Amino acid sequence: MLPHITIRLVGQQNDRLWELIKVDPEIHVEELVNLIQTLTRIPPNFQQIEFRGERLPTVEHPLQTIKFGEELVVSHNHLIYWKTFLEMIEEIRKMTTSGATSARREIADRAQEQLAILRYSKFFHVYSSLSFEELKISCNLNFLVYNTKKYLDRSVLAYFEALYPKRKVELKDKTKNFAGIHLGVFVLVDGVASHYAKTLGDIPGIEEDINCIMIDSIEIFVYILLKLIGLGAEEVHVIPEVNKDEWVFIATKLSGFRRKKVEINEEMKKEMRILSSLLCLNDLLRNEGNHGVVEMKTTEDDYELRIVDFGIDIASIFDEPAVLKSNISSLNEYLEKWDILNNIYKAKETMENDPALKNNPNVNKKAFDRYFERLETALKTFLNK
What we know:
Layout (H helix, E strand, L loop, with lengths): L3 E6 L6 E7 L6 H12 L6 E5 L2 E2 L15 E6 L2 H16 L7 H19 L2 H4 L1 H18 L2 H16 L5 E5 L10 E6 L2 E8 L17 H12 L6 E6 L7 E6 L3 E2 L7 H14 L1 E2 L8 E5 L7 E5 L3 E2 L18 H7 L2 H13 L12 H19 L2
Parallel strand pairs: 1-5
Antiparallel strand pairs: 1-2, 3-4, 3-5, 6-7, 7-8, 8-10, 9-10, 11-13, 12-15, 13-14
Protein name: Ubiquitin-like domain-containing protein
InterPro entries: Ubiquitin-like_domsf (IPR029071)
């Protein structure tokens, strides 16, 4: 009878086990590494295998003495590059000098080199949890290089101190488990949380000049539109950066918002499916941190959906909204309730006339025009207007 063994993948927070794997003690080493690749997705030339606490011997039949219940401990041999990458990111975080200093750039370039090695070796195919961590770090890497957090804090504080001149304004960093990959801070007015401010997309890349920023006007437009149709924040503020006119941040206010304890019902999910398709939003339904409810004043048991964060699926702006060809019931009623066609024009006008954007040459106008044309054409066709 062939022994059953365990293959243990190590390298991330929780080990992954494949148990009761039948293995012939006479298995050839080539067949063994192919089996490990099938289970763990580690290519043979990047496998590090340990048996009984030691490296697997380099022989044709390395498991001749294996017994029932024993295990092989497997890891990707590029874990050292991942650890080096994290150390470099931590080094950038420790730097407090404002601006994109040469030291920051140099470390960021070397960190990117580590990532290139990891991606080539299929490292993130193996460690899914580390893949998500890498995504969050990469999305924030430019913020770290350009020390955007300091610009965000200065600009938001100046904006709200001007908005509330006779009140005490403070900032509080968001917690690590707070939704969203962008940098963000809570605004406290007289000690009470009032607004949430964050960075937008399209911060310059490491190789780009700091003057080549393109502002994500699509994201701003959607925030304003959601406010107008009653499913977003009650206030939307576009905040100019205090020192550089080409940077802007966004702040929203939402009173009585709850993420938990209240079930998101099927009606709310239907609204999110419609808006996701119509407005090219991603990660809306799946990420519970992007939506919640507010309690209505009429009754304690009555709640309405509110959307507080989202991603823009830029690739889908070239496709017609699939929802308008679907069989979702009451679709016309939703579009009528939202007065959607009139409100997309109001949102566009509001955004284009905002003082922080009106004469800003760095607004991503080309992408927004394509996005708006798609939305306008689809709605006019569907509504026969």
